[in-house]
């Protein structure tokens, strides 16, 4: 659909604008979270959803209907690190909020730009700012300029953004929105009817699975640390490490695996979707996130693994210690410690009774805390209250 084909919606339902720099089909925790909210809003009889996001295919604006949601994709002129930008957004966002007769703005960040503009352009509309990360400071050497920009943003811009927001929503205690006045914590969720348990871990092959980005801008995910830890499991020749996802860093990571002598036991599948992805997690012995930065505010991949009865291993950064109950549904280890990570993986790969016990507890905890249906209804009630 062309942008000019948009018609003014009737006022029988109130409209919520979900604003996110990225949106499916791009894969990621923030993207999935934003889509879940938009689709839940669209399914409510008294609410209507419109999404404002960026156009990955060009500088123009496109409008489409996706799963009952009007999705407006605004062109981006440039990209700074992982942040798309366009000076015209200031005018475009205001126009689309007015054209779609938006009543409530729900912006998702920490990617600066579009979400900030939406909050500052709300013009009297109530705003809900969902903040998905702790500090975005880069951990790798050579990011001095990026860290100075991030430091300026987090020190001067972000507090003003939070103060302008009607209700900040931290997704976990590690979020920079946590503890703010009026804050309401709503974590990411899991579709527990899709992510269902496989056989007990003791009956699965010795496979460790990582699901996530492998971009040079996302090295804080610590996949190199995971490969180094896996290389220490030479006493488990049947063990395999499965890397699910894509990015411009995949070749470097596979080269590291070759240098460490485990190239034949590290498999890169590329991105998987649908039942193929669920089955890969359901058949794994353990799911892992070895992040090294507080940017890892929740760890959706570990929540999904636990929903499948797959014990999780995470690092003690950001929100991972809240997503994984250490010693109950999985194990938490120090970041940048391949030896500790290897020991945790070895435990879950070899101790059948322990792994099976954690699998049962993991599924139960996700059902109780992270069912998407319960969490999205909390959002709808929040939007209605505003």
Q: Could you please describe the fold and organization of this structure?
A:
By secondary structure, this protein is of the alpha/beta class. It folds into 2 domains: about 5-190 and about 370-385, Glycogen Phosphorylase B (Rossmann fold); about 200-370, 3-Layer(aba) Sandwich (Rossmann fold). Helices cover about 35% and strands about 20% of the residues. β11, α6 (about 250-260) and β12 form a beta-alpha-beta unit. The longest helix has 21 residues, at about 145-165.
SSE order and pairing:
Blueprint: E1 14-20, H1 29-43, E2 47-55, E3 62-66, E4 69-75, E5 78-80, E6 83-85, H2 89-99, E7 104-109, H3 114-120, E8 127-131, H4 144-164, E9 167-170, E10 207-211, H5 223-230, E11 240-244, H6 250-259, E12 266-270, H7 274-282, E13 286-289, H8 300-307, E14 312-315, H9 320-323, E15 330-333, H10 338-350, H11 352-369, H12 372-385
Parallel strand pairs: 1-2, 1-7, 2-4, 7-8, 8-9, 10-11, 10-13, 11-12, 13-14, 14-15
Antiparallel strand pairs: 3-4, 5-6
Class by alpha and beta content: alpha/beta
Strand order of the largest sheet: 3-4-2-1-7-8-9
Low-confidence stretches: none
- Separate helix tally: 12
Whole-number mean pLDDT? 93
The CATH homologous superfamily of the largest domain is termed Glycogen Phosphorylase B
The portion of residues assigned to helices is: 25-40%
CATH class descriptor of the largest domain: Alpha Beta
> How many beta-strand segments?
15
Tell me the number of structural domains: 2
CATH topology of the largest domain: Rossmann fold
Shape descriptor: globular
Distance between the termini: 31 Å
Largest sheet: 7 strands, mixed
Spell the H/E element sequence: EHEEEEEHEHEHEEHEHEHEHEHEHHH
Which architecture of the largest domain would the CATH scheme give at its second level?
3-Layer(aba) Sandwich
């Amino acid at each position: 659909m062309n942008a000019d084909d948009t018609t003014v919606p009737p006022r029988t339902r109130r409209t919520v604008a979900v604003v996110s720099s990225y949106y499916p089909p791009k894969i990621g925790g923030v993207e999935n979270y934003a889509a879940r909210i938009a689709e839940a809003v669209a399914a409510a009889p008294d609410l209507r959803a419109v999404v404002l996001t960026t156009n990955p295919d060009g500088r123009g604006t496109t409008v489409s209907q996706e799963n009952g949601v009007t999705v407006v994709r605004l062109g981006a002129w440039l990209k700074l690190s992982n942040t798309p930008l366009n000076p015209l957004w200031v005018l475009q966002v205001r126009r689309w909020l007015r054209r779609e007769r938006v009543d409530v703005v729900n912006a998702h960040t920490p990617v600066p730009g579009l979400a900030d503009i939406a909050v500052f352009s709300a013009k009297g509309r109530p705003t809900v700012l969902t903040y998905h990360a702790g500090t975005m400071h880069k951990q790798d050497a050579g990011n001095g300029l990026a860290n100075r920009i991030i430091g300026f943003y987090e020190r001067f811009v972000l507090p003003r953004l939070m103060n302008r927001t009607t209700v900040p929503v931290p997704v976990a205690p590690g979020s920079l929105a946590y503890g703010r006045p009026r804050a309401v914590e709503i974590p990411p969720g899991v579709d527990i009817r899709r992510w269902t348990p496989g056989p007990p871990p003791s009956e699965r092959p010795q496979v460790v699975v990582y699901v996530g980005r492998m971009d040079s801008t996302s090295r804080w995910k610590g996949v190199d640390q995971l490969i180094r830890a896996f290389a220490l499991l030479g006493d488990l020749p049947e063990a395999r490490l499965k890397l699910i996802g894509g990015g411009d860093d995949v070749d470097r990571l596979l080269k590291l695996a070759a240098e460490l002598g485990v190239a034949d036991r590290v498999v890169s599948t590329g991105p998987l979707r649908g039942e193929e992805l669920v089955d890969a997690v359901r058949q794994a012995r353990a799911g892992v996130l070895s992040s090294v930065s507080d940017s890892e505010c929740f760890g959706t991949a570990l929540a999904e693994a636990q929903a499948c009865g797959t014990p999780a291993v995470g690092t003690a950064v950001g929100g991972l210690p809240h997503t994984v109950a250490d010693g109950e549904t999985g194990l938490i280890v120090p970041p940048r410690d391949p030896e500790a990570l290897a020991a945790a993986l070895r435990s879950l790969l070899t101790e059948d009774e322990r792994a099976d016990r954690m699998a049962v507890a993991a599924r139960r905890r996700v059902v109780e805390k992270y069912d998407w249906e319960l969490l999205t209804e909390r959002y709808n009630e929040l939007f209605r209250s505003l």
